[in-house]
Amino acid sequence: MSEALLIVAHGSHLNPKSSTPAQDHADAIRVAGAVDEVREAYWKEEPSLRNALRTVTADEVYVVPLFISEGYFTEEVLPRELRLDFDADDWDSDGTSADFVTCTPADVAKTVHYCGPVGTHDAMTDVIVRRAETVTGDPEVGAGVGLAVVGHGTKRNENSAKAVEYHADRVRDRGRFDEVRALFMDEDPEIDDVTDHFESDDVVVVPLFVADGYHTQEDIPADMGIADGAGGYAVPTRLDGHDIWYAGAIGTEALMADVILERAADAGADIDRSGESRTPTAAADGD
After folding, report:
1. Mind listing the pLDDT tens digit for each residue in 240-254?
2. Cα-to-chain-centroid distance, residue 283
3. What is any one GO biological process for this UniProt entry (predicted)?
4. Tens digit of each residue's pLDDT (9 = 90 or more) over 94-115
């Protein structure tokens, strides 16, 4: 029986870069030949979630949300738009442990394995480390370096912070970096006090956002004080006696394609890994 991978993302009518990570990772998976059929769909762009399952040829579909945290979008919006008989209680998740639920769509005769978001998968910890390697150009980065894992944070969804704290704890437990902190835009501890949280001379800042947009390219650099006034920032930027290496959105890192595949594999997908070839994206330079 043939299988399909459906990558679902937010998309945006205002930010053309919003859909770029989903497109890039889907293309990488297609080129690798890891899955029989690969599709993307978006909440705010075409192709739409509403019609997504109708475009899939395979009878068995693995749906992987390209989102960072569990919550409103992964538990309400996406299942509703895909017309799945989904109940978030079936995940039995503590906010970071959603796995997958096998569902039947209301309008098409397919079996859908609806997966938890990529952002809470354990493999995302590796992507954070890879992002630090990419932005610094140092495959051994860690000793003498601090790492800030940054999330949006919101009182409306406690799981937003949980995902960030979860991966910060996992990186810290590896003992690779001298200091690891979880920081946020909209709750304490805040990213605008980034240098108050580190003694290390070099601090790598990795935002857990899927796409580069207003938050990652304007808000966070401005909050940290590294924005140059011309819509960019230098990497590194000297700030309060520290060198700040700002990596940009983690979702643009090429290794994210592997996390998508891991999510599908965990749900039972037959992944062909013989053609995989991943190379890190270029380091973010603020341009």
Report:
1. 999 999 998 999 999
2. 16
3. cobalamin biosynthetic process
4. 999 999 999 999 999 999 999 9
Q: Rg of the Cα trace of the chain?
A: 19
CATH of 3-120+253-266, one of 3.40.50.1400, 3.40.50.1820, 3.30.360.10, 1.10.10.10: 3.40.50.1400
For residue 223, the model assigns a pLDDT of: 93
Pair of tokens at residue 60? 């068995």
pTM of the model: 0.92
Separation between Cα atoms, residue 163 and residue 63, nearest integer Å: 20
Domain 124-251 has CATH 3.40.50.1400: yes
CA distance 97 to 76: 17
What burial letters (b/e) apply to 61-77, b meaning 16+ CB within 10 Å? Answer: bbbbbbbbbbbebbbeb
Measure the CA–CA gap between 150 and 153, rounded to whole angstroms: 9
Listed by start position, the domains of the chain span 3-120+253-266, 124-251
| CA angle at 27 for the pair 21 and 28, rounded to the nearest 5° | 90
Whether 69 and 94 have beta carbons less than 8 Å apart is answered as no
The mean pLDDT value of the chain amounts to: 91
